[in-house]
Amino acid sequence: MIGNSRLHWGLFINGELNTTWDTEHLQNSPPHPRTPSPPLLIASVVPTQTTKWQNYPNAEFITLDQISLGRIYSTLGIDRALAVFGGGKVYGFPILVIDAGTALTFTGADANQNLIGGAILPGLGLQFSSLGQKTGQLPLLKVGEVQELPPRFALDTKSAIQSGIIYTLLAGIKDFIAHWLLLFPDSKIAITGGDSKLLGSYLKEQFPEIGERIILDKSLIFLGMREIVRVN
Question: Which of 93, 113, 115, 186 could form a disulfide with 71 if both were Cys (CB 3.0 to 4.6 A apart)?
Answer without folding.
Answer: 115
